[in-house]
C-alpha cells in the first residue's frame, strides 16, 4: 500500500473533485459515511453514549457528518465543538448547519476547560479535533482537552489521524496528541503510523477507501510503500521441476567467534531454511565441531585462529555472502573484512559486528561493494550515520547514506524500513515476540538465502524482512510472544512460505 504525504492527499482531494465532478462537501460526506458504516457494523444500534469532539476544520466536519448519521439512526450522541477560533472551514459550517435537520440538541460549544464533559469508562469517544491539517502545536485549553480525553478510560476512536499527530512531520508537542485505541484513516495510511516515536499513538488502524482518484494515486510517487502479504506474494519466485541445488546457489556465511557461535548457527540455518541450494559457513577454529553438529546440512571452513576470524578464504564461487554475525571487532577480523569486501564478487549482506567495523574504520566503508545490503538495528545505525533528533531526521540521514554509498539500508524495528535510492519500504509483518536475542542473525540468513537464489538485493531485503516477520508471527501464535526464541523463527520460515499463498477460510455457515 502506498503512503502519501498530507500535501499529496490534499492534491488527490482536489483532483478527485474535478474528475468526478463532485464538491469537497460530497467527499466529506463519503468520508463521514464510511466512518458511520464502520461504527454501525460494530455497534448494531447499541445505546452506548458516544461523545464526538470536533475541531473547526474539515476533520471536525467529518465528525459532524458521522454525528448526523448516528443521530439519524437513533444512537445516543453528544457532539462537542472545540471552538478555538472563528476561522471555521466552509464544509465544517455546512455540516454544522445540517445537524439542525436531524436534532434539536445543538452541538455543545466548548470555549474553555469549564466545558469539558463527564465521560464514563463504558462510553465511546470519537476524536475529530484535528486531521492532517495540523500546522502548529495545540495550545492552551485545546491541549488540555487532548490531555483530558487521554485521561478518560472510554474507548477512543480517531478520525483520519489521532489529533495532534502530523501525518509526515515531527510531532510539535508530544504531550498534546490523542492516544487513540483505534484510528480510521482515509484512503492511505500515514507515515507517522509506522515510525517508533509516533506509531505509539496509533496501535491499531484501518484504511477506509473514500474513492480518491485512482489514476492520481497510481501515478504519484509515494513517500513509502508498505509490504504486506499481497505485495510479498508477488515477490515470490516459483521453483521449476528440473531445478537442482545449483540453481539456488552456494551461499557463504562468515560468522561467529568464541562465545558467539550461536549467531553463526542461527544465520546458517536461516540461509538454508530460506532456500539456498548449499551453504558454507566460515568461522574461527573453535566453531568447527559446533557447526558440524548444529547445522549438519552446511559445510564448514575454519580460520587458523581458534577464537576469532583473521583471514577469510574460500575456494568456490559464492552466490551470496552474509557476514558479521557474532564475529567481534578484533583488528585482524576487520582487516579480513577489508579483503573480503574488496574481492567479493557476490552480493553481500553486512550485519552486526561487520557494521560496527564499518563505523569504526572509514576505509572499510569505502570498500563496501555497491548494492550491498546493510542491516543495522537502531544502535548500529546511530554508529553509522550519527544521532538524530527525530525519526524523520533519521530517515533523511539514512537516505543520504544509502545514496552516497549506493547500498540497500535495512533499519530494523517493529516496522523495519528499507531504503534504497529514492524509495522506502515499510514492513508490516512481525510481532513483539521477535524482540529476542539472535532474531537479527536469522534475518541476515534469510536475506542471504534469497540473494543466493537470485533475488536482487532490494527484493531479497524487502521479501526477506517480510518472510522473517511472518515466521515470527506464526511462531508466536503457537509459542506465545514470550516463548519465541530466534531458532523458532528460523524453524517457521517454511511455514511463512506456505502462509504466503494460504487462502483465508470463509466464516463457517450457521
Ligand atoms: N483527501 C482529503 O484531504 C480529505 C480530507 N478530509 C478531512 O479533512 C482533514 C483535513 O482538514 P483541514 O485541512 O481542514 O484541517 P484539520 O481539520 O486537520 O484542522 C486543522 C484546522 O485547524 C487549524 N489548526 C491547525 N493546527 C492547529 C492548532 N494546533 N491549534 C489550533 N488550530 C489549528 C487549521 O488552521 C485548520 O483550520 C483530513 O484529516 C480529513 O479528516 C475528509 O473530509 C475527506 C477528504
Ligand atoms: K482526528
UniProtKB/TrEMBL annotation:
Q: Which domain of life does the protein's organism represent?
A: Bacteria
Kindly give the InterPro entries that the UniProt entry links to this protein.
Carbohydrate_kinase_pred_CS, CARKD, Nnr, Ribokinase-like, YjeF_N_dom, YjeF_N_dom_sf
Required cofactor names: K(+); Mg(2+)
Annotated positions binding AMP: 412-416, 440
Residues annotated to bind K(+):
59, 127, 163
Q: Which residues form the YjeF C-terminal domain?
A: 230-500
The molecular function terms of the Gene Ontology recorded here are: ADP-dependent NAD(P)H-hydrate dehydratase activity; ATP binding; metal ion binding; NAD(P)HX epimerase activity
Record field: catalytic activity: (6R)-NADHX = (6S)-NADHX; (6S)-NADPHX + ADP = AMP + phosphate + NADPH + H(+); (6R)-NADPHX = (6S)-NADPHX; (6S)-NADHX + ADP = AMP + phosphate + NADH + H(+)
Q: Name one GO biological process term.
A: nicotinamide nucleotide metabolic process
Query: Which SUPFAM superfamilies does the record associate with it?
Result: Ribokinase-like, YjeF N-terminal domain-like
Does the record bear NAD in its keywords?
Answer: yes
| Keyword entries, A-Z | ATP-binding, Isomerase, Lyase, Metal-binding, Multifunctional enzyme, NAD, NADP, Nucleotide-binding, Potassium
Q: Where is the YjeF N-terminal domain?
A: 9-218
> Which Enzyme Commission numbers does its entry carry?
4.2.1.136, 5.1.99.6
Q: List residues binding (6S)-NADPHX.
A: 58-62, 131-137, 160, 263, 326, 377, 441
Q: How does it assemble?
A: Homotetramer.
NCBIfam families in alphabetical order: yjeF_cterm (TIGR00196), yjeF_nterm (TIGR00197)
Tell me the protein family, please: In the N-terminal section; belongs to the NnrE/AIBP family.
Q: What does this protein do?
A: Catalyzes the epimerization of the S- and R-forms of NAD(P)HX, a damaged form of NAD(P)H that is a result of enzymatic or heat-dependent hydration. This is a prerequisite for the S-specific NAD(P)H-hydrate dehydratase to allow the repair of both epimers of NAD(P)HX. Catalyzes the dehydration of the S-form of NAD(P)HX at the expense of ADP, which is converted to AMP. Together with NAD(P)HX epimerase, which catalyzes the epimerization of the S- and R-forms, the enzyme allows the repair of both epimers of NAD(P)HX, a damaged form of NAD(P)H that is a result of enzymatic or heat-dependent hydration.
**Protein name, entry field:** Bifunctional NAD(P)H-hydrate repair enzyme
Q: What is the gene name? A: nnrD
